[in-house]
Design a protein that fits this description.
There is one protein chain. The protein folds into three domains: about 1-50; about 75-170; about 185-320, Distorted Sandwich (Glucose Permease (Domain IIA)), CATH 2.70.70.10. The chain has five helices and 15 strands. The chain has helices at about 25-50, 55-100, 110, 130-170, 305-320, and strands at about 1-5, 5-10, 15-20, 185, 190-195, 200-205, 205-210, 215, 220-230, 235-245, 245-255, 265, 270-275, 285-290, 295. The strands form three sheets. Strands 4, 7, 8, 9, 10, 11, 12, 13, 14 and 15 form a ten-stranded antiparallel beta sheet that branches. A three-stranded antiparallel beta sheet has the order 1-2-3, with no helix packed on it. The chain has a two-stranded antiparallel ribbon with strand order 5-6. A hairpin with a 6-residue loop joins strand 5 and strand 6 (about 200-205). Helix 2 (about 55-100) packs parallel to helix 4 (about 130-170).
């Protein structure tokens, strides 16, 4: 009989309950059995707790995971918006910006270059749940590569725009005499009868007659490469190199206002109308050369330029 951890038995001689004294060996064995039972019970309770109740650490990591998933959704939407904006830039680039400068649209194969798979994504396979990370990485790489290509396209366009602005400033495009001044054309570009030898010869420019001393203007920005008396019939002349293959000549001048090496602006006064050299009267012989070939200066005039607009150009050129 066991009462409160003690064992009793009936003594046959006295017929009383007497406490049984266990040996040390039996006591140790009983203690081990009891301890093992308690340990097993604790383990069962721990497994059951972990199975049906979440630990604080697990709750913490689940919260972190949920936050990351929310941030992923936000990032994914942001990438989609960037892709839409980039697609609109590409559309404008091909249809408007590049067409203005006569450039062919970028081929889709160029715009999509470098946006395929990459061996580096395989390194992400070792992490837990890699699909989400790989998906974001691929999208970011695709947007980054497209943005890089689009940036290079804009750089090309900017370079062409700057070159065209420089060309517009340099190309001879106004009359060498102000529309306010009284002048008239006495000879056109092309074949004519030479006034001195009466032979049919090619006239490489146009002749604009007027009173002595009229201001003669540079018709485009450039550098003076000749400002002297030409002994081959042109008399006092100024020759300007405008770059981009353009040169202009202003001959038979009465006076030269610039020197060789000077940088001149469109509308700047470079001399006075005269009759030096092989000339029959006061006039300006005006030539334009493009890539070493003479072209008709009339093709380069802004015919609709008003006297007021011409004066604005001249005033700007006179400013330091």
């Amino acid at each position: 009989m066991n009462m409160f951890g003690r064992k009793y038995y009936i003594n046959p001689e006295t017929l009383r309950f007497e406490e049984r004294n266990l040996t040390l060996k039996k006591q140790l064995r009983n203690s081990l059995v009891l301890g093992s039972g308690l340990l097993i019970l604790a383990l069962v309770m721990r497994v059951g707790y972990e199975q049906y109740a979440k630990s604080p650490r697990l709750v913490y990591y689940e919260n972190i995971n949920n936050e990351l998933r929310s941030e992923y959704k936000i990032l994914n939407k942001s990438i989609q918006l960037d892709e839409m904006r980039l697609a609109e830039l590409e559309r404008r680039d091909d249809r408007f910006y590049r067409s203005i400068f006569g450039i062919e649209p970028l081929a889709p194969s160029i715009r999509e270059a470098g946006t395929g798979g990459s061996p580096r994504y395989s390194a992400l396979q070792s992490i837990s749940n890699p699909d989400m990370i790989i998906d974001v990485s691929i999208k970011l790489d695709k947007v980054s590569n497209k943005a890089r290509i689009q940036s290079a396209s804009f750089e090309d366009i900017e370079e062409l725009a700057e070159r065209n602005l420089k060309l517009l400033a340099c190309k001879p495009s106004i009359q060498p005499i102000s529309p306010e001044d009284r002048y008239w054309m006495t000879s056109t570009f092309g074949y004519r009868t030479d006034p001195f030898n009466k032979r049919r010869t090619f006239h490489r420019g146009i002749d604009l007659a007027g009173p002595y001393g009229l201001d003669i203007y540079a018709t485009g920005e450039g550098v003076v490469i000749s400002a002297e008396y030409n002994t081959h019939g042109y008399g006092r002349e100024v020759v300007i190199d405008h770059g981009f293959g353009y040169k202009s000549r202003y001959a038979h001048l009465q006076k030269i206002n610039v020197e060789k090496g000077d940088k001149v602006k469109r509308g700047q006064v470079i001399g006075k109308l005269g009759s030096t050299g092989r000339s029959t009267g006061p006039h300006l012989h005006y030539e334009i050369h493009f890539n070493r070939k003479s072209i008709n200066p009339l093709y380069c005039f802004y015919e609709d330029i008003t006297p007021r607009e011409f004066k604005i150009i001249s005033d700007r050129a006179a400013q330091p």
